[in-house]
Fold each of these.
Amino acid sequence: MRINSFRIDGIANIERVTLKMGEQNALIAPNGYGKSNVLRAIEFGISFLTADEVQRQLMMRSRWLPINAATKGRNFVFEITGNMVVDNIEQQFVYEYGFAWAKSDNDGEILTESLKMKHPSDQRFRQMISRTSTDKCLIVPSALGRCNKPFAVSGQQLALSALARSTTMFLSPFAARICDIQIPNLETLDNPESYFSVGGGKGIVMLGGMTLSEYLYHLKTTDEDNYALLEDGLLQLIPNITEFSPEVVTLPDGQQKIYDIRIKEKFCTQPTTILQLSSGSKRMIFLFTLCIAAKKQNIPMIMMEEPENSVHPHMMENLLLTLQNYASDTKILMTSHSPYLMRYLRPDQMYFGLPKNDGLAHFAQINPSKLKYLYKYAGDMELTIGEFMFDFMLDMEGNNEKIEKFFIQ
């Protein structure tokens, strides 16, 4: 499964945001521009696919309903595009659904739904699901059929989810592949010790509820190939580490176990616990381990907030390169308010928060035809492009003419 793009509409302070996904992607803006809301909206949109009808009803009453003056009363729309392989044949797909948020006098309900697919030999997309109102839904019944078979759905039921649960419908394997999409939103590593704690600590859902120390021990003992990749990547990422060894100690009761990672640093005479590493090093190990886990589980994309926190700017390039090299087909969407991160990303990998002064989250890419001017301006001011762009965006606040000139919206 590969994710190509998202479109999000009508949630929180998001009127409409469209993101094309490269291997690495970043939402760049100062605090308060809606970066985190975009990640949460994607997480919300994916979770809605596999929620049951009671959960969906609650989600349509959630705190994420749009309350900005420009979006109040706007319906939620979620679109995801990508490529999937079913029966060894790759297909492109475009899936979209929309619902009306619940109001005080009525429940929310699903209004629209669409699935389009294209076989490599096809010239155009073929309509597979067509839903134009809450209770009017048509599907394709067979490989050669047209999208004309009525399919019964309720106001809290997605046709895609219902088809995914079936074992007899033609569209079932395609629907199941889309519903199986996982896009973890990784937590900010504010307290690294809690994830590596030798005494238990916080389990991580993506790692099957294990701490990183426990997960790395199990990886070492059950999957030599992926463990070798991880160990090689970490030793390149943090050159100061010369030895890296997850270990387990069984307590005197013979049942309870304590997991630790023993680290030997370049100028130390003996290994010590990973807890004695700097928070920046622990953060890099945390993020890299989750990328390897995503690769192992065939997760198509992960999201992370501010990966540069506690990481020295000169180590940031190593981190991004290592994540990209070892994450394989897993794409990365990150947020940042650091000009340092921008040094190591291409312009087409970055979406900038636009200061339109309307309380909405607006993200757009730089117009390619204006790049040489922006680099020239930055050079004339003896600034990095990252430092310049932050100042430039703040100077544009409320200047829609200038925003339209320099950004693709």
Amino acid sequence: MKLLTSLLHLSSFVIPHSSFSAPPDSAKATTDKPNVLFIASDDMRPQLGCYGDPTVKSPNIDALAKRGMVFQRSYVQQALCSPSRISMLSGRYPATTQIFEIGRTLRTTMPDITTMPQHFKNNGYDTRSIGKIYHVGIDDDASWTVPAAQGQKPRTSPATQKAVAKFIADAKAKGVTLPQKGKGSRNSAVPAFEAVDCGDDDLLDGDCAARAVAQIREYAKNPAQPFFFAVGFANPHVPWISPKKYWDLYDRSKFTLATNTFLPKGAPDFAATSGADFRWYAGVPEGELPEPFARECLHGYYAAISYVDAQVGRLMATLDETGLAKNTIVVFWSDHGYYMGEHTWWGAKHNNYEGATRNALIISQPGMRHVGEKTDALAQSVDLAPTLADLCGLPPHGGFQGRSLKPVLEDPASTVNDAAYSWYPKSGYLGVTMRTDKWRYVEWTKPGAETARELYNMVNDPQNNQNVADNPEHAQTVEALSKRLREKFPVQEFKEPPAVDKKGRKAKR
């Protein structure tokens, strides 16, 4: 009975075989068009075995890297979930989408845009997603053949769910309206980390994986129908909650803590900040974290990564079992970097530095020549739309602003970008950063204010500890980089976004 219930539960996501158009007689085995399995992870910095991390346990993602290529210098276009995902999925820079915050949908600023998955749909692909791909509650129906789906299991333990329910009930009894986010929100009853004695599928990411596995098996029934299938995992975004077995993989006494526990020196005060999301959760102390608590945080983060890694393994195993792996391009992508103690920041991003903008990116293509290799070529999230369209033989789309990474996949020593660009608004300033081989240059502009600049030597200072923009010996470098940056992206004024309703649309006045 339990098995029957599970199958009925999963059937709410997969589409029956009869809903696909029947393949012609000549298409007995598979379509000539490659499929795409796009896997996204939330807040996962490039802290994986395949990126050289000696502590994290990520055997399944490492195995994917061995059948693909690891991009060691990949960058997102904004270190914040929704703007990053919108930029990647649209193939446009935030300077074009004009979305720098969580709230609005893409079509509030670009109603007639064709997104990456929509381009695939327009060219005969079945496109769908499950989990966090755009952003929960901020999706784009035009991108998908069927509306985006979400997992149905909670992220937290039953005990935490009860605590949250009590917290909300107590507030209601007192006539208190809880804020949507920040201190005092429902997150105040959620621990920042938790080891739950449960199975993978009892929590959200495992449930999403189970549903995704069912969908892949459904696709296998009609191999002549190409698909673009996006699967998004919520971890390792805070709160770091995962089944206890992933916590058991680690000995926290052996963790290495960050040593640069200070703000970037010489940086503008408004720029050298990050998000406070982590501080909103239950039990998080103010100020500097005591070492035992810091180690628990790292433990939760590592366990959350391993939990996602296991779900990636399930997806890959299903591709292999069904035979779809022979004709499926797999992308593993994270939506930005993350700080776990560096610069005093925990569970945060929200800025224009290397730790926030550098992400994990692995691309695996059937039959690729350079399997298991790494590349130092600069890559951007906006490059994924033209790359996947190129690899799948789709017609070029003039709206995509990135560059195809196909030449890099064919030769990891080659390059297609001479720089990667990211944006972030702060204190009325709009900051844009340009990452080159040697430098990270940041320029902050605000009407009526003097332009602020940051410059970091990525060879000698890869963690952005010392801003050298005001050093006279770098004056010519700053001038040259500024000119180069503004030739590509003229100065823009940051405007506060309009209020939106719960569906991310402009609110009616």
Amino acid sequence: MTEETFLVAQDVYLKAGVHIGTKHKTKYMSKFIYKTRPDGLSVLNLQEIDARIRVAASFLAHYSPEEILVVSRRENGWKAVKAFGKYTDIRVFAGRYPPGILTNPSLRNYTEAKIMLVTDAWPDKNAVSDAKAVGIPVIALCDTNNSANDIDLVVPCNNKGKKSLGLFFYILAKEYLRLRGAPEQEFNQEEFTPE
């Protein structure tokens, strides 16, 4: 895959650190690892990251904004998911996800969704569990230390860094809107990344 076919320039991906994994790697995520650096950190394959972002955007584009729920327990993702929700009108849950909002209609914040995206399957395990209980697919951003239990689509990336999450949600917003045929909107990557 050449740089021209990436969703953003390769140096933009590299600058955001979207490819930097952890020192720990799970068996499932090893297929996405390009190499291990001398300091022990794993490096994810940029082509795989880009390809999976395309798949995630294409998958989400089959759903209207009100049918999608994005969850981020990880604080580094809050600004990114809020900006994503602002531009796409997709419902986002930034912060602690109370278990049962998809499964218990008697809760005041009960909601329905047809697909869920989580920034990290481990901190967002309550959301993943609810999605599994109601039978909706889950897309998860997974670092080298994640497992893929109950995940329907894994997007390999650095799911802990502010810049990485900001870039991911910026790209996803642009692709989702483009694939849905929405009018072009002006927004910039800085709106998705905390200072």
